[in-house]
C-alpha cells in the first residue's frame, strides 16, 4: 500500500512540474511577442540618433542659419520702393528691379516729349499738379525722360559713351546706378531750349520757378551746381527727383543737398 501511494505522489509532482513548465513557456512566448515592438522602436531611435544627432542651437545655427521671417524678406524687397533709397555711383539697383505702380504721364495730361513716359503713381500725381501750377503762371514744363529700366539705361549709357567716351560718366549713370530706374525722377525741357536737355535750361524762368516751388510738390533738384564731388555728376538743372513733400521741405530748409540728405536719412537698396 505504501509503495503504490508514493508512486502516485511522484506522478502528481511530475505532472505539476510539466504544467508549470508549459505555463513558463507560454509566459516566455507572450513576453517575447510583447517585447518585439518595443525592441524595434528602441533600435529605430538608436539608429536615428546615430545618423542625425541632435545638435546644439549654436551648432545648428552654423550648419543651417535661420531664414529671415517672411515679413522681413518682404521688407527687404520693398526697400527699393522707399522714396529715400540711395542710388548713386556706389549704390546700385538690381537689374530686375522695377516699380509695380508705374502709370502713364500722357494719360494724366502731362506734356511729354516723344513717346509716353512712366512714373510711380504718387510721384506722377504730384507731377501733374506741379506742371499745371507752372502752366497757370505761364511757365512751360515738358517731360523728356522719366522711368527708365535697367536695359533702357544700359542702351542710353552705351550711346553716350560711344559719343563722349569716358566723359559720358559725368552726364550719364551706368545701368543700375540711375535714379530714373526708381520711377521717381524726371528730366524737364521746354521751347526756350529747343526741347533739348541742356544746361541752358537752368537759366530759364521755368527753371527758376522749379527752384522756388518744386519742393511744394515733393520734387528736389537732384544734381545741383557745385555738387559734383558728392554726387558724381555735373550740374543738371533739368533733373528732379520725387522724395515727398516733407522730405523735399527738409532738403530745401536744411544745410544739405539731396545727396547729403539721402546719405544721412536714406536707405540702402537691398531688393
Task: Explain this structure.
The chain has helices at residues 2-51, 57-63, 70-78, 121-136, 150-164, 205-213, 228-231, 245-253, 258-265; strands at residues 102-104, 118-120, 142-145, 185-189, 219-221, 239-242. With 271 residues, the chain is an alpha+beta fold. The chain has a four-stranded antiparallel β-sheet with strand order 3-4-6-5. Strands 1-2 form a two-stranded antiparallel ribbon.
Structural class: alpha+beta
Report the order of strands and helices: HHHEEHEHEHEHEHH
In CATH, the topology of the largest domain is named Muramoyl-pentapeptide Carboxypeptidase, domain 2
Through-space gap between termini: 110 Å
**Total separate domains:** 2
Runs in which pLDDT lies below 50 for 5 or more consecutive residues are 36-74
Tally of DSSP helical segments: 9
**How large is the radius of gyration?**
40 Å
User: CATH top level of the largest domain?
Assistant: Alpha Beta
Assign an overall shape: elongated
What would you call the quaternary organization?
A: single chain
CATH architecture of the largest domain: 2-Layer Sandwich
- In total, the number of strands is 6
**Portion in helices:** 40-55%
Entry keywords:
Muramoyl-pentapeptide Carboxypeptidase, domain 2; single chain; 9 helices; elongated; 271 residues; 6 strands; two-stranded antiparallel ribbon; alpha+beta
